[in-house]
Amino acid sequence: MQRTDFSAMACSIARTLDVIGEPWSPLVLRDVWVGLNRFDQLQADLGISRKVLTERLNHLVDQGVLERRPYDRRPRYEYVLTEKGTELVDLLMVMAGWGDKWLAGEAGPPVLYRHHACGEISGVDLRCTHCGESMHANDVDVLPGPGVTTS
Amino acid sequence: MQRTDFSAMACSIARTLDVIGEPWSPLVLRDVWVGLNRFDQLQADLGISRKVLTERLNHLVDQGVLERRPYDRRPRYEYVLTEKGTELVDLLMVMAGWGDKWLAGEAGPPVLYRHHACGEISGVDLRCTHCGESMHANDVDVLPGPGVTTS
DNA sequence: GTCACAGAGTCCCCTGAAGGAACTCAAGAA
DNA sequence: TTCTTGAGTTCCTTCAGGGGACTCTGTGAC
């Protein structure tokens, strides 16, 4: 969709946006995650144009985020998350956490997450992979890495 | 930009997408975060159309994610992250982590993060706010919450 | 006092993506 | 044989994105 090609930028944020950087893709992934795996289910739930849904699904399959698999001898297909796609859902949980905090208002969060390990209704917290302490935007320095050149 | 109004959906992901759900906004936030605070700096760094940049900045200010403040007696302004915006940058770090893992390829990540607390080059890890254990997409049940109705 | 300048936009035109509705196609069911 | 269902295609209209030129406002130089 975007006219500008983000995938060529030397920035992992821009490259990720090339995969899910328009508003329907994250919602498609969310729906697939919660068990809406078929074209018509997705179309009905999201209210998205069939044309655009086709484009999004093809793009997500091309990117290796979803897998298209037949579930019948008739030409019927369903979409499931790959490992790459499942890890994108982590991003959606963080997104949902921000929306819960800043946008949900009086009514409270529309969806809750129960953590298997402890059984509690909970949310995600960002921690350093190295020391395990809290790690947020203000807790880091940004440095150039090995893949910094555009070529 | 989007013709569909995501803000009305009873979904914190959709609502968040109404704030940063098109590809330029996250990149604008990233740039502001690393110290590119002025209109022409952003325009030059991103290569974005001036018209679109104006729209994005206004939207982000309206949403309370950025603050527009004068820095001169002449009509000169710079954009800074609010607390709400800074917490969105957390989301960008998760996004960058996914891109680093799945899209960076041979060259490696273009940007590294050094954690103030431990001084190490590191990344973010998602953990349960309740028990502190790892918490990813496959580690949770999704349940309806109090704000589930659309009204 | 006038001129050039720089930052921060605004305006205009063109292209192409999003929305919406109707149409197609394959294969099993009645 | 016709009906139905899932999974798309096709076509048309409208509006957002890209690009470049233009504007506006104070300042400092001459």
UniProtKB/TrEMBL annotation, chains A, B:
Keyword Transcription regulation: yes
InterPro entries: HTH_HxlR, WH-like_DNA-bd_sf, WH_DNA-bd_sf
Residue spans crossing the bilayer: none
UniProt-recorded Gene Ontology molecular function terms: DNA binding
Gene3D superfamilies: Winged helix-like DNA-binding domain superfamily/Winged helix DNA-binding domain
Residues of the HTH hxlR-type domain: 11-107
Keyword hit for rRNA-binding: no
Keyword line: DNA-binding, Transcription, Transcription regulation
Cleavable signal peptide: none
Official protein name in the record: DNA-binding transcriptional regulator, HxlR family
Organism, scientific name: Asanoa hainanensis
